[in-house]
Amino acid sequence: MPNPVIYDESKIRHLEDTDHIRTRPGMYIGRLGDGSHAEDGIYVLLKESIDNSIDEFNEGFGKRIEVNVEESKSASIRDYGRGIPLGSLVDAVSKLNTGAKYDTSVFTASVGLNGVGLKAVNALSRKFIARSHRDGKMHEATFERGVLVSDVYEDTEEENGTYIYFEPDTELFGDFRFRSEFVQTMLRNYTYLNTGLAIYHNGRRIISRNGLEDLLSDNMTAPGLYPIVHLKGEGIDIAFTHTAQYGEEYYSFVNGQHTTQGGTHQSAFKEHIARTIKEYFDKNFDVQDVRNGLVAAIAIRVIEPMFESQTKIKLGSLTMAPDKDRNGNPFPLSGVSVNKFVGDFIKENVDNFLHKHLDVAEVIRQKIQESESERKAIAGVTKLARERAKKANLHNRKLRDCRIHLNDPAPKTKRKGGEEEDDERDPRLDSAIFITEGDSASGSITKSRDVGTQAVFSLRGKPLNCFGLTKKVVYENEEFNLLQAALNIEDGLDGLRYNKVIVATDADVDGMHIRLLMITFFLQFFPDLIKKGHVYILQTPLFRVRNKKKKTRAAADTAPRTIKADSAGAAILKKTQQSERSEFETIYCYSEEERLAAIEKLGPDPEITRFKGLGEISPPEFAHFIGPEMRLEPVTLHKSDKVADLLEYYMGKNTMERQGFIIDNLVVEEDPVEEE
After folding, report:
1. 592 and 535 within one domain
2. Above pLDDT 70, what percent of the chain?
3. First CA to last CA across the chain, in angstroms?
């Protein structure tokens, strides 16, 4: 019988600020990651560093911010604000709950109020430098993993302001890389919300002259039915238009912070924009019809905002300002709810706009009536389809579900010694569904998947080409309807069940066609699914190259080993590895270049197997390709991509332009003739 663990004073630990941040980084930055996702921790570090410069700009100090990302491994931020007070520089960047933003007379509407931001950046960086310039004096502090290693004071001729440099720690973030597309999107959002601010990214200027109007113009993938309506007020800024697309699309911000998951301000906007339009027309329109095709942005300024997490992606504040400031005096908006503030502004300004611009009002009325007519036309079909999907959910042969879903309640916090701690990794973010081609592929994935987070939906042949069709087809086509029900996206993405929707098809012509048909389905009816970065293409190996191992047992073994221990294919994989490990060294190749490199590495006369389809890959092998090292290619839409134009080009009638594209990009594979 093992000795019982003794719980006494020796088991009580105190973690210093830096140690706590490094031990529990998920509490401070949400997730780690390697930079391949826009919400990975390295971008949170960058954002936390820039937020302080934005706060300076909002207080009227410094109209220029320089952001440099060096070799995708480090970043520096230089602003021209007031500069951190020299004597408090070290404390301001290294001690939790330290800063000037608790004083609303200094920062009236700041993003960060918890005194954590730069401290987390410091603690999670291999190297961190903070430099402040104030009135001809300079103070520079250098840290390594949160520990002060250098502290220098000297005279300077540089302008006032603050300089921050950091290198994320590879011990925590692994082989990370800053992606320029994510960095640029972040910086553009800052300029949209701060008219007059110029951000220089690696020397290139980013500026916005029209604020939220520019944001919508740059991000819309379908033309507006009328010019973007842009309305500004004290502490609030909104912009909106309707498009011919299905669904709704929102961009929301608080004090310059992009709240990607919305919050109380976004909910208020959705409620009151529909109500105001209904009251203007004095008709009992359905809210769903009013908001169908709506693309909108809202930005508000809240004094001492409350967010639902440290990463500040969802506003939780119910009021625009606390009851009183630190001196006991009320704020101008003390006690005013966020809902009332947003609602009053929309009621007055949107109503006035519609009365002044009757042409816009008429376009909106026609859009609402079209949505209403379509909804009523498919009402009967929708009811039957929902009943069918409800029955199928009990036993859906097409869906092999997993245990964890994106829309599940947040995981409960762990308790240690009576203290609550947040999970560093939210398992809901790992939830994925594979949309597979045929039973053979779905069988291999089903046997090797992680049953906790990976679901499988099997297609029966090629899906319907839905280009140019109305949403009625989603309910009439059993396969589309069951897929919609499996994803739970009929009423928008709020209830999306899987974080990643992965199209897994063969890498042949038929497989490519199925990919295109599925992407067409999403673009036609659920474009937000792609815009929000949920759709991926699974990359599978084209070749398996292996050779007899050399006598040395320490020779490299690249057989698939990186699979979760609790997955269904783990036992089979282990057995296969044990039998093959002593015989072969195996390399899986995803391109011709990788095949040639593998041949060169393994030596002469290797055994080369070409995989023509997913069904040819055994479950033990497949377990590796959908495990932690799974290769995914995200399906993205750029600001220049217009959905209607893309669908017309690829899925419309055969055009000379498309014929020319195919001819120019045609790849012909030939087997080389060996000369005797």
Report:
1. no
2. 76
3. 74
